[in-house]
Amino acid sequence: LLDPRNFVVFITGATSGFGAAAARRYVAAGGKVIATGRREDRLAGLQAELGADNCHVMTLDVRDRAAMEKAAADIPAPFAGINIVLANAGLALGLQPAAEADLDDWQTMIDTNISGLVYTVRLLLPGMIARGGGHVVTLGSVAGEFAYPGGSVYAASKAFVKHFALAIRSDLQGKNIRVTDIEPGLTETEFSLVRFKGDEGKAAAPYAGTMAMTAEDIAESIFWATSLPAHVNVNKIQLMATTQAIGPFDIYRD
Ligand code: NDP
Ligand code: 8X3
Asked: ipTM > 0.85?
């Protein structure tokens, strides 16, 4: 197994959910993280918890290409040896049928889940290659594999993530860069609170009366994939809560 004390992990979306749990997991194992996101107060809290020697924070919006370019060029020396990029920032907005969905919501998902992802990966890959190797971890979803009503652009954006991850692997042959797409199902984080725009009742409903996965479960799978011996590439990991399964096709009848 690789020694996690050598890990330097750049994380998008570290203010909550999987990203925050992954930051804690890597630092607990002796690694260093660069934690990023838009909410400065959350980043400050995470840094206070993990220590400034282990956790560097950068306030940034992954949709802002210029800010992303500046951030990638601005990593302080102790954290400059990034060898894991966790491209995790993302969101779902709304669950309306396609003909009723808010086009601004669709745009935000495309800008965040697709544009933000490709900025992150494209800007950080050359440095990792120059330093001799590393690992890109993307956050896809079961939604990228199984369509569901109201999923539309969110599901399609996650299909993009999955295929982007597989495709860049082909370009990275011989560069010692691994690529893994993590594809979780039902996991209780702030995901639903964001999807339902702060409506706590609606946000709680997907998790009510069941045992969803936790952010720590997903962080563990990310940590596992990146800790395997360097000659092993996990292409993708699809995880569901034990209480979640795939339903039948939906047949309309008069
Ligand atoms: P959370 O809402 O808990 O966390 C999302 C993170 O993304 C936050 O840190 C948020 O930070 C960040 N983020 C959102 N928009 C931006 C932006 N424009 N710029 C920078 N950061 C941004 O959700 P999860 O932890 O559950 O989600 C993480 C990833 O996992 C997402 O890509 C999601 O689609 C995916 N996923 C989630 C599943 C689930 O059931 N929870 C299942 C499958 C995949 P901030 O708001 O501070 O910017
Ligand atoms: C999050 C899981 O099923 O809510 O990607 O789309 S789901």
From this structure: yes
Helix (H, G, I), strand (E, B) or coil at 186: coil
Nearest atom in ligand 2 to 186's CA: 2
Torsion of CA 112, 176, 14, 26, to 10 degrees: 160
Q: pLDDT tens digit string along 71-116?
A: 999 999 999 999 999 999 999 999 999 999 999 999 999 999 999 9
- Given a contact cutoff of 8 angstroms between Cβ atoms, the answer to whether 43 and 57 are in contact is yes
Q: What is the pLDDT of residues 162-172, one digit of tens each?
A: 999 999 999 99
In the chain, domain spans: 4-239
Residue 161 near ligand 2, beta carbon < 6 Å: no
What is the third-level CATH fold of 4-239?
Rossmann fold (3.40.50)
139, 161 contact by CB (below 8 A)? yes
181: CB partners within 8 A, 6+ apart: 137, 138, 139, 140, 161, 162, 165, 166, 235, 236, 237
- In this structure, the residues whose C-beta lies within 6 A of any atom of ligand 1 are 12-19, 37-39, 42, 61-63, 88-91, 112, 116, 139, 141, 184, 186-187, 189-191, 194, 215
Distance 13 CA to ligand 1 centre (A): 6
Partners of residue 7 on adjacent β-strands: none
Q: Which strand (E) or helix (H) includes residue 224? A: helix 215-227
CA of 247 relative to ligand 2 center, distance in Å: 14
Ligand 2 within 6 A of 141 CB?
Answer: yes
